[in-house]
Amino acid sequence: MPELPEVEVIRRDLVPRVEGRRIQSAKIAEPRLTRRRGTPGGVAAALVGRRVKALRRRGKFFIFDLGRDSLIVRLGMTGQLLWSENRHGFRPDQYTHAHLVFQGAGILYYRDIRKFGEMFILPTESVEQTLRVGVEPLGDAFTPEMLGEKCRSSTRIKSLLMNQAKIAGIGNIYADEALFRAGIRPTRRAASLRPEEIRSLRRAIRLVLQAGIRHRGSSIANYRDACGEPGRFAALHRVYQRHGEDCHACGTTIRRIVLGQRGTHFCPTCQR
Ligand SMILES: [Zn+2]
């Protein structure tokens, strides 16, 4: 599933292509995409003729700012935003459920095998309160003090990191990788973390997210950037899906458990 780094890589790919451009036509062929709000025809019609003022991101959501309204896109498990221009780039297939034609620029396709993704329109002024995503972990507001506040909870630390209403954009991969780098077991109760562990965890979260962006995302399932290329961060995973292999730091076998219905990977020696 695309997490903050993957969404941010795609956003940066698309910004120079769509910002300031007008949507000439739009088609949404899959009703599940608009299940949260509106209808396929209604959402598509509302996009035609509108100019994209800015393409922003909150957590795992893309926000196409159209002025009064914004188009929100969430990729879910297997969603992809793929750019095509001048007969180069992506060609639509049976899993391509929507596209936006940008005047004088190209076509943005939405492709999604499992159809857990979403497209809907919100008034721009209500985007924040409707999406209800927590603090951006790469932003200035994400201080050790703020993480410490959020950790005053009996929930397990990995579940807290993945709670989108608390911290935006961290999913299974980056939670496991950050906890390894901080030396913290995913099963620890958040409230049991000592101040130095909280500082170390904040540092590790920012480090893995920035590395994920730098290496253009982690292509574990079918993640592709806006040009259809896989990312390279998966080769740098220390624990995620490395169960049964040796820990690079200490040689202990990496373990996998299920926590909150998600596969969770850790080193029993390095993480306490
Ligand atoms: Zn280890």
Structure, explained:
With 272 residues, the chain is an alpha+beta fold. The chain folds into 2 domains: 4-131, Alpha-Beta Barrel (N-terminal domain of MutM-like DNA repair proteins); 144-266, Helicase, Ruva Protein, domain 3 (Orthogonal Bundle), CATH 1.10.8.50. It contains 7 helices and 11 strands. It has helices spanning 4-18, 40-47, 127-131, 144-150, 157-162, 172-182, 195-214, and strands at 23-28, 54-58, 61-65, 69-74, 79-85, 88-89, 96-102, 106-112, 118-123, 255-259, 262-266. It has a 5-stranded antiparallel β-sheet. A 4-stranded antiparallel β-sheet has the order 2-3-4-9, with helices on one face. A two-stranded antiparallel sheet has the order 10-11. It binds zinc ion. The site of zinc ion (ZN) has 7 residues, from loops.
List the helices and strands and how they pair.
Blueprint: H1 4-18, E1 23-28, H2 40-47, E2 54-58, E3 61-65, E4 69-74, E5 79-85, E6 88-89, E7 96-102, E8 106-112, E9 118-123, H3 127-131, H4 144-150, H5 157-162, H6 172-182, H7 195-214, E10 255-259, E11 262-266
Helix pairs in contact: 1-7, 6-7
This protein binds zinc ion (ZN).
SSE topology string: HEHEEEEEEEEHHHHHEE
The CATH architecture category of the largest domain equals: Alpha-Beta Barrel
Shape type: globular
Question: Quick one: how many beta strands?
Answer: 11
- What is the mean pLDDT? 96
Major sheet: arrangement of strands: 1-7-8-5-6
How big is the Rg? 19 Å
| Number of helices, where a helix is a run of at least 4 consecutive DSSP H or I residues | 7
> Unreliable runs, pLDDT <50, ≥5 residues?
none
In CATH, what is the homologous superfamily of the largest domain? MutM-like, N-terminal
Determine the structural class based on helices, strands and strand pairing: alpha+beta
